[in-house]
Amino acid sequence: MVQNQCNILANQILVNQFTIGSAQNNLNVEIDQLANIWEGRILVIDSKYKIIKDTYTIDQDNYMLYDEVIRIMHGEKDKNIRMVSDYAEIIMPIINAEKVANGVIIATVSLKDIEDTNNYIANQANVLTVLFSLLAILAAFIICKISVHDFKQLNIQIMQLNEGHLESLNVRSRYNEIKQLTDSFNVLLEKMQMLEDSRQEFVSNVSHELKTPITSMKVLADSLLMQEEVPNEMYREFMTDMVEEIDRESKIINDLLTLVKMDKKVAEMNVKPVNINALLELLLKRIKPLAAKRNIEVVFESFREVIGEVDEVKISLALSNLIENAVKYNNDGGNVHVSLNADHKFFYIKIQDNGVGIPEECQAQVFERFYRVDKARSRETGGTGLGLAITRNAILMHKGAIKLYSELGVGTTFTVRIPLKYVS
Fold first, then answer.
1. 71-127 pLDDT, tens per residue?
2. Which residues contact 163 (CB under 8 A, 6 or more apart)?
């Protein structure tokens, strides 16, 4: 502020051509008033180093050859500020339009008022700090009181939920965080309920599937026991049916055990480089006799040799299920097309048939355990409803993906994508 007022004063002196005591201007009075305000002293020095104004009148009309004044007059410095105990000395040039110093102003300013002002401001700042701290504490107390009330309500509802009295949480709060927490709890509860429903359905399906062959065997055995002198041919027929039911029971149990092994959080993976072309040819060789019985043509198309890092047992099981399904659910005289391709990152297997197809409303569920599109046809073909669930788990364990494209009465295509390099 003092520097700005000195600049203004310098401009006025320059405009009046250093005629401070002239009757045409009141510069002399203004300088005196400014010095009184600052409780200090102002000296105005012209280009000849003559003091043309001294508010103390002590050095009026004398010459000042002070080193700092000479440097500023010569343009070596733009200003000089010196602090001495209770006052400050400011030396500033009076610069004309050509940016040349025509004179100098020396202002001595008392620091007492500034210190008093600073002390006053500091005291006011301390008072405001204490006041705002109290307000902050009060606001925090009120917010905590409200928040604790909302959290208590949330805790009460969670306890009621644990006791089985509620199905979802409903906490009315003005805070978005508590609303979001409540919503997150409800989403978690919904997922847990879905998981529980799925578990109960799985247990029910397992019980039903395991009980059905046993029931059939009991009926057959009771039929034999209720008859006397049963012919050997009937014994043989009934025993053959019982053996088929035992085989069916064994297949269900084996598939369940396989599924349980693949459901483990850390399943064992015996990964090694495998020639996928040779693996598919071997699987097709085993399945072709089954296809030949129904005059189904199986074609294998390979675009290049593929070596992938896979668990050979698990991937063989997955691909066998897909190819067998393509044969089992095909029409007599149909065809199955298996193709293999790869890029720099993945290998791709496509298994396409022109069989019965899968209805669109069923396609999202075919990978679920014990789900059958046509239960009667599945039983005829010996299906357990676990094959595609096992297939999907095996592919997911390889960090792969499986997709289904199907049209009822036209056929079904499964596409499998698996990384060439296994990433654990």
1. 888 888 878 888 777 788 888 888 887 888 888 888 888 777 666 666 767 787 888
2. none
Instruction: For the chain, report the end-to-end CA distance as a whole number of angstroms.
Output: 71
What pLDDT band is residue 320 in, cutting at 50, 70 and 90? confident
| CA separation, residue 376 to residues 203, 290, 380, 385, 391 (Å) | 21, 20, 6, 12, 22
CA of residue 198 relative to chain centroid, distance: 28
Amino acid at 214: I
Q: What is the distance between the alpha carbons of residues 30 and 41, in angstroms, rounded to a whole number?
A: 13
Q: Across residues 181-185, what is the average pLDDT?
A: 74
**pLDDT more than 70, % of the chain:** 77
Q: Which helix (H) or strand (E) holds 261?
A: helix 232-263
**In one letter, which amino acid is 395?**
I
**Lowest-pLDDT choice from 216-220, 273-277, 302-306:** 216-220
- Model pLDDT for residues 136-170, shown as the tens digit of each residue: 887 777 766 665 666 677 677 777 766 665 666 66
Q: Give, in order, the Cα–Cα distances in Å from 113 to each of 9, 107, 109.
A: 22, 16, 10
Max Cα–Cα distance, the chain, nearest Å = 155
Query: The whole model's pTM is what?
Result: 0.47
pLDDT (0 to 100) of residue 377: 46
Contact in structure between 104 and 80 (CB atoms under 8 Å)? no
**Contact (Cβ atoms closer than 8 angstroms) between residue 314 and residue 394:** yes
| pLDDT value at residue 123 | 80
Q: Quote the tokens at residue 178.
A: 């508590």
Pairing of strands 335-342, 297-302: parallel
Residues 6+ apart with CB under 8 A from 359: 373, 408
Would you say 276 and 339 are in contact if contact means Cβ atoms under 8 Å apart?
no
Alpha-carbon radius of gyration of the chain:
49
Q: Phi, psi at residue 268, to the nearest 5°?
A: -75, 130
**For residue 95, what are the CA distances in angstroms to 64, 155, 184?**
18, 77, 72
Which residue, 393, 386, 416, 385, is CA-closest to 403? 416
Q: Are 44 and 10 in contact (CB under 8 A)?
A: no
**What order do you get walking across the sheet with 401-407 strand by strand?**
297-302, 335-342, 346-353, 411-419, 401-407
Distance CA 21, CA 4 (A): 23
3-state SS assignment for residue 211: helix
Alpha carbons 253 and 28: distance in angstroms, whole number: 114
